[in-house]
Amino acid sequence: MIRKERRSKVFKVISPAISVLLLLAVTFDLHYSILVGPFLDLMLLLWLMVAGLVITIANIAFCRFRKIGPYVPLIIIVSSGWILFNKSKVNFGHNIHFFLNKENLDYIEKESKIARIYEMTNLLRHYKRINAKDISNSSEYFGREEIEEVFGEYIQDNKLEIEKIVEIQEKLIDCGIISIQRTGDLLLLKVDGFVDNEYGYVKSFSKELKVGDILPSNGLTIVRLIKFENGWYFYYST
């Protein structure tokens, strides 16, 4: 009897906790690291949803289906599932992130063109690049002094502006963007990804993008697209 009561109390705590976590994750796309960095990938999210359903239904059964309270987490989890599978209609997290970072995104787009930076990483990850110059190591380079130490000769030989490069790096880091690629009439700002999957912002200067389009910079196909203003989109590709 005591063990059963303890189990019931555990379910009462875990059930609402999981339901709220799921709602936040699917509403703000936490599993795609848009707002808070890598958090929940899709498979973990689905596993958590199934576990939440099982625990919630068990909690309802412990209450003998008489109380209304235990049904609330169930409603939240079902609603989270609807949001998850209707991403084309619900994009709160992406819109919030774009609104908060629009000024920086526009700065990167305009100033990188003026500074003749067509490809650049944030210089914090293993692979680092400024236009045609690239290196790979575990070091992080931030600020004028550290960037000049590694890329100074290339920057000088190609008459690039170190001040602009430093400013662009700062904006990339502020937005959570790891690289810039300017190809033809597209500007890709990669947030993250793997070998054959990536996601981030893309700006089209001449045409409207659509799901199924191939990104010429990496040959990947757009599988999900969220449209903003002035040619800006958020893309997922594979």
General description of the model:
With 238 residues, the chain is α+β, with helices and mostly antiparallel strands. It has 6 helices and 8 strands, in the order ααααβββααβββββ. It has helices spanning 2-27, 42-62, 71-84, 92-114, 143-157, 162-175, and strands spanning 119-121, 127-130, 133-136, 179-183, 186-193, 198-204, 222-227, 232-237. A 6-stranded antiparallel β-sheet has the order 1-4-5-6-8-7, covered by helices on one side. It has a two-stranded antiparallel sheet with strand order 2-3. α4 (92-114) runs antiparallel to α6 (162-175) and α5 (143-157) crosses α6. The longest helix has 26 residues, at 2-27. The protein is elongated.
Key terms:
two-stranded antiparallel sheet; alpha+beta; elongated; 6-stranded antiparallel sheet; 238 residues
Q: Label the overall shape.
A: elongated
The rounded distance between the terminal residues' Cα atoms is 53 Å
Helix content: 40-55%
Gyration radius from CA atoms, angstroms: 23 Å
Strand content: 15-25%
- Structure class: alpha+beta
Average pLDDT over all residues: 85
Order of helices and strands: HHHHEEEHHEEEEE
Low-confidence stretches: 34-39
Largest sheet: 6 strands, antiparallel
Strand order of the largest sheet: 1-4-5-6-8-7
The number of helical runs is 6
* Structure summary, number of beta strands: 8
Topology at a glance:
Blueprint: H1 2-27, H2 42-62, H3 71-84, H4 92-114, E1 119-121, E2 127-130, E3 133-136, H5 143-157, H6 162-175, E4 179-183, E5 186-193, E6 198-204, E7 222-227, E8 232-237
Antiparallel strand pairs: 1-4, 2-3, 4-5, 5-6, 6-8, 7-8
